[in-house]
Amino acid sequence: MVLPLVLFGNCWCSCSSTIFCPFPLPNPPFRYSSTFHTKLQPQPQCSLAKIHVKSQLSNRDSIRRRRSTNSLPISDAQAASFFALFQEIGIGFEETQVLFSNNPDLTSLSVESLRARLSSLRSLDFDPLAIGKLITKRPTVLTDNQIDPLLTFLRDELQGKLEKPRLNRLLSSTEQNVLASFPQKVRFLVDRGIPVDQVVHVLNKVSLAKVLCGRSVDEIDRTLAFFEPFGGIDLILKRPQILNHDLDAQIIPRVNVLMELSDGDVDSVGKVLVRFPLFLNYSVEHVEGHVGFFSSFAELDYRQIFRIIQVYPAVVTASRERKLRPRIQFLKDCGLDSDDIFKFLIKAPTFLSTSFHENIAYKLVLLVKIGYRFRTKDFAVAVRSATRTNSVNMQKVIGMFLNYGFSCEEIVAMSKKHPQILQYNHASLEMKMEYLIEEMGRDTEELLVFPAFLGYKLDDRIKHRYEVKKSVRGAGMSINKLLSVSEETFTGKPRKAHA
Fold first, then answer.
1. pLDDT (tens digit, 9 = 90+) per residue, 194-216?
2. pTM score of the predicted model
3. To 5 degrees, how large is the angle CA 421–CA 438–CA 460?
4. Quick check: 482 and 469 in contact, CB under 8 A?
5. If we measure between CA atoms, which residue out of 166, 86, 81, 80 comes closest to residue 125?
6. C-alpha closest to that of 316 among 268, 283, 351
7. HSE value, Cβ hemisphere, 13 Å, CA-based, for 128
């Protein structure tokens, strides 16, 4: 590689070395090779030349800065104070110059007032760099007189607990004249029933620009008033994000769908919304599509559909084609008519949305292995009970029965009489089996006749009644009669009539 030579004083200089000469040299008629240059010692004269060039650049920068500060309608001392103040928050010289050029109002402020405004921002736990970015994006944060009351409100009344990203968006993207009404609207929320210790929770969940800054007090009041019959403040506290929806275009039409299904039952609709406020996220078209599917494909009426929504409002989150249709078809293939399907879904609604490959498939295999015939009504009933537990617990329940000497045929027979035994907790069943054998001295075969024994509470029902009647009837009493009779019949005391 051949490097060019540059003349500095009485020497030829390349970027890697310098050749000295005691007298002035003419322009070089040729280029020296880099190999030759590397054998020569570097000269301090070249370094001095570079320092001289840097000094010239530094002088030019100083001159440029002096000209820039002199171009501002403030004194040099004031300009220097401004530059030093902005440098503390990460805003450089050129950015400061642009800010002052584009925002002449800054020059009318004193350094003390700017420092006080910056101190107010720091009191909200803004770090210096975040303040610098905020000011660069929205310089009026420094000049608008309406900001000070807002910052005081955020610091004192909200205790600076508003999340920093939301606060940053509020200050950087909202018009300053709208921000002036922000404290008033927050106080209005408190006056309308939102607890003081919960108002920050609400503010941190909603879009501040949309809910508070973009709406008047009357619009906010109208939205809160609409929700009063349907859960009111409890509904809002459970999911404040529902306030982001437009009242006329979204909230009212979506609530009206439920009102039509419930035949105007306000209390029932309110319970659905409080239980699952996410329901309001789904459009009218989406919900009506689910209603139409259950009406046409499952042949359910509106009363039955609303009842399913009451039990499991998250049904609207399930895909109609990917989940609802094949599972309703499965129930049909098992021989269930529309009333049977309704009863199935009331008791096991999660069957419609539970993962097939990670949940339902394992249970179907277990049921077939112990002897259930696939696609029969009995099989569907067993699936209904299995839906209410997980596959691991169900496998342990079956294993426990096998360990106590029951055959697969006997397990199927017991579960047909009392399907719930497949969904009971295996540890609880183990304790009841031990009490039946060890304390009551009974044979496990009695469960073939009365498997519902395993559904009663061990301490409150089984132990209590057995201890009461043991001395009267002896150890051979029927466990069916012992447990299945009502409390009035068992104690012999009629229930007191209420006034």
1. 999 999 999 999 999 899 988 99
2. 0.76
3. 55
4. yes
5. 166
6. 283
7. 9
